[in-house]
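Dear Dr. L.,

I hope this message finds you well. Following up on our conversation about the binding site, I have prepared a predicted three-dimensional model of the protein together with zinc ion. For your records, I am including the exact sequence and ligand specification that went into the calculation, followed by the structure tokens. Please feel free to forward this to your student if that is useful.
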Amino acid sequence: MHSHLPLSEDDRLKDMLNRNKEWAKFIQEEQPQFFSTSAKGQSPKVLWIGCSDSRVPAEQVVQCAPGDLFVHRNIANMCIHTDMNFLSVLQYSVDVLKVEHIVVCGHYGCGGVTAAAENKFHGLIDSWLCNIKDVYRANRENLEAVEDPIARTDLLVELNVSNSVYNICHSSIVQSAWEHKQPLSVHGWCYSLEDGLIRELGLVISNQEQVEKVYKMAVMNKTVSTKASEKSI
Ligand SMILES: [Zn+2]
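The resulting structure of the complex is given below.
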């Protein structure tokens, strides 16, 4: 691992580009077929949804190589039904790449989750964080029963991961995959900045039977009926 010596801001990006050259040279020497294989295409088995936090780099914390993970990261690893970016990543990875696992990996000490539990003004991001406030409101009694503020935030971090897992499972994309017997499971994990370890939250959903009734959709085929809309136009 490289040491991180203090750099002037002008040198920082030059240093990154130099490191890239060193890395490419190293890989070329160690695995001469790596780049030619990589250029042919990808077939990752896992979609990783994590926080944008610089301290939780997806590939690094699970020792995966380029090509192993399809990755989506945003502030506080949220999966929101109206977020076209998230939905596009989900649809492409499930329908086209046919990933077999979706991992939502939150992390304790998440600044986004902490900010959501506070009453400060942060600007535009408050609208994004409102989704976590909704999770707080839905679990207020359980959260406020925890006296230690750090433990309470940790619980909110876990509940926010669970909420993302459920939102993924409630999507027509995932339910359609299950309907078509595509092997796909959704997992909730949490990374600790304190020791670098990931804790499984005991939340694994791999079929429609595990989804609460109101969210179940009878997705029989991938062609959406347009009859209703045709009538209404
Ligand atoms: Zn975070």
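In brief: Residues 51, 53, 76, 107, 110-112 surround zinc ion (CB under 6 Å).

With kind regards,
A. P.
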